[in-house]
Amino acid sequence: MLSHMQAVADLFDRWGWEVLYHPPYSPDLSPCDFDLIPKMKEPLRGIRFRTVPEILQAVDCSIRTITTRGAAKGILRLPHRWQWVVHSAGDYTEGQ
User: How many other CB atoms sit within 10 Å of the CB of residue 2?
Assistant: First the structure.
């Protein structure tokens, strides 16, 4: 019986897939930057806060409005986002 790792390696060889090694976390491509942070910031846009406690309360409220389904949708869109970054050679594009 093949080990799981050997079975995956055999599949990669058979289909001609290239294994791309990368760190588990890249500060250039933080998943939170693409979906979670914009969702959190949107309700706060244009508001001027007078005190730090006001800011903390508003941020807490904003975070609580993000549903599990909304977060999952953002995660599912990440492969498309990563492909866009590769396609644009890492250049920043507004609204993408």
Answer: 9
Q: CA–CA separation, 62 vs 64, rounded Å?
A: 5
Q: Is the pTM of this model over 0.90?
A: no
Structure tokens at 20: 């791309």
Q: What six digits make up the tokens of 80? A: 């498309």
Q: What are phi and psi of 73, to 5 degrees?
A: -60, -40
d(CA 5, CA 3): 5
What confidence tens digit (pLDDT) does each residue in 22-64 have?
A: 666 666 667 677 778 888 888 899 999 999 999 999 999 998 8
d(CA 80, CA 21): 19
Residue matched to tokens 């807490």: 60
Whose CA is closest to 59, among 75, 79, 42?
A: 42
- Per DSSP, the three-state class of 95 is coil
Asked if 59 and 40 touch (Cβ cutoff 8 Å), the reply is yes
